[in-house]
Amino acid sequence: MAKILIVEDEKAIRNVLKNILSDEDKTFEIDEAENGKMAIDMVEEKEYDLLLCDIKMPGVDGIEVLEHVREKHPDTAIIMISGHGDLDTAVDSMKKGAYDYISKPPDLNRLLTTVRRALDRTDLVKENKTLKKKIAKGFQMIGESDALEQIKSMIEKVAPTDARVLITGPNGTGKELVAHWVHQKSERNKQPLIEVNCAAIPSELIESELFGHKKGAFTSAVKDRKGKFEQANGGTLFLDEIGDMSLSAQAKVLRALQEGKITPVGGDKEVKVNVRVLAATNKDLTEEIKEGRFREDLYHRLSVIVIKVPALNDRKEDIPLLTEHFAGKIAEEHGNAAKQFTEDAIVELQKIDWTGNIRELRNVVERLIILGGKEINGYDVRTFASK
Ligand SMILES: Nc1ncnc2c1ncn2[C@@H]1O[C@H](COP(=O)(O)OP(=O)(O)OP(=O)(O)O)[C@@H](O)[C@H]1O
Hints:
Blueprint (H helix, E strand, L loop, with lengths): L2 E5 L3 H14 L4 E5 L2 H10 L4 E5 L7 H11 L4 E6 L4 H9 L4 E4 L4 H31 L7 H13 L6 E4 L6 H10 L8 E5 L5 H9 L16 H4 L4 E5 L6 H13 L1 E2 L8 E2 L3 E6 L3 H6 L5 H7 L2 E4 L10 H16 L8 H9 L5 H15 L6 H7 L3
The structure holds adenosine-5'-triphosphate.
């Protein structure tokens, strides 16, 4: 249900606009303001999706309304209504952030298509914002240990650069989370972060997965398909579990990194790609190099910056905050109030050997919330958290 405000000093035109819009869509909620001052008061009271605003009005004119709304309510779209004498001002208003303008007397079709487009854009902006908020919430990095603070400060420094980052650490410590943060805090965040789990893709498919293929390149290639490098163009490619990539795939990735170009399987043309590569592994790559399972030249290409994410056992001081965070999230998911953990419960949690790291802690917190009492105490932890 779109909320629209018509700002126009001529009653007859207000009526025409209102009738056209409510005939078009009965769900439109349409308000009217007969001058600029009234419009500014009204946008402060209610959140509008769209303003249709006359340019020439006595007192506060349309441009002042536009400036106010752009500054205070940037998500609200504004379509200016221009009379004979103010076409230049109307064109100018678009530089000031108006979505578009229509001329008086309003042409029915032009009015409706412009309104539709403006509302679609507002929807998109809003959707994007909710998505960003959701992502930000889902990717919170909780903890105040020295180790985590150091990681956060490294992320701040490396994110805005295009340097490749190798993220190392045991399973479940938050390597993927670090990769998301590096991407989110970089200039590339308007483009996608594409993830590839190198361990999950059979070696014979990895080339096509990364570089794409041309129709007919192999039996199941029924049409051209873009690979992950191309999908990530302008953004970031995250190669997770890079230590599990086959040597032949490593050679091809190395070439792509050296030349900034890829060749789809079955293709004869090279494609230029602009991709920042982040990689993660739980393996000790220097050991893998010694054993001949990982290419040293690729290692050096990937590890311009190395972020080591420590095991949870090495930062048990983060357990209280993490427990509280997960308890809150789980309660939200289950739709009930968050259960409290007693100090005794936290002490018990800190005694556990967390081989599965933060992922395991989250599971244990969920188990305790389901099986434990109203408040989770040390007894609950001793009883239900054992492996
Ligand atoms: N500091 C943190 N604060 C909040 N949640 C965290 C933190 N670190 C990790 N997590 C959460 O723990 C889970 C495991 O993290 P993630 O998947 O990033 O680990 P990983 O090291 O990439 O694991 P794997 O090597 O198994 O792929 C995720 O749900 C993640 O959101």
